[in-house]
Specification:
Helices cover 19% and strands 14% of the residues. It is α+β, with helices and mostly antiparallel strands. The two termini are 15 Å apart. The strands form 4 sheets. The protein has a 3-stranded antiparallel sheet with strand order 3-5-4. Strands 1-2 form a two-stranded antiparallel sheet. The chain has a two-stranded parallel sheet with strand order 6-9. The chain is globular and about 45 Å long.
């Protein structure tokens, strides 16, 4: 896998810790992070050449909240994602033969972009045809180490922090099936040959 968690600055916060930060805008709050990170990003060759994961550098207690929504996150409406790809990656050909005439290198960059982003699950009570619903946006975190967090069927992290105690050197993982999987997201991933998070979770369960 070369997958990651989402949006958040993956350090253990020393100040106020928000509940369910995924669904809250914490951008106006002040968070103090330790000088030394609580994690390490390193290669995980068992998942393939160049694949990475996030590993604890210190003991992390159960229920520790360390996700903070920051301005590192790019929020892209589903109607704008093709323009975003064109702007940041140039013209690329899709893996199924469609699209532009860009080289394989550009396609692979888009695949990484799609695999390192996520869609939030639709909130309860949202209308299925609401085009500005929670799951109508793609979130990209291109500079956040959290993007390297891998999927696990037995995760030790969730959307509100650690699910149990995590030992030094242990990989931090999450369940990708938590995220949204709307049709437009499935389409864009298929077009560029990237696995959706739901497909990653399904493959791991097979």
């Amino acid at each position: 896998f070369f997958f990651d968690f989402y949006i958040l600055h993956l350090n253990i916060c020393d100040s106020k810790k928000p509940s369910m930060a995924l669904f809250e805008d914490a951008s106006k709050e002040t968070f103090v992070f330790p000088t030394e990170p609580a994690f390490l990003v390193r290669n995980v060759p068992e998942f393939g050449t160049g694949q990475k994961g996030v590993f604890a550098l210190q003991e992390i207690a159960a229920s520790t909240k360390f996700w903070v929504w920051t301005d590192r996150i790019h929020r892209i409406h589903r109607n704008d994602i093709e323009d975003y790809i064109l702007k940041y990656f140039g013209a690329v050909g899709s893996s199924d033969g469609g699209g532009g005439d860009g080289g394989r290198e550009n396609i692979e960059a888009v695949q990484v972009f799609l695999r390192q982003g996520f869609v939030l699950p639709k909130k309860k009570g949202e209308n299925a045809d609401n085009t500005d619903g929670t799951d109508d946006f793609f979130y990209s975190n291109p500079t956040d180490a959290g993007r390297y967090m891998n999927h696990s069927n037995n995760p030790n992290c969730g959307p509100d922090g650690s699910l149990r105690s995590i030992n030094i050197g242990e990989e931090l993982t999450m369940d990708y099936s938590f995220h949204g999987n709307p049709g437009w997201y499935q389409h864009i991933c298929k077009k560029y040959g990237a696995m959706t998070e739901a497909q990653v979770a399904q493959k791991a369960s097979a």
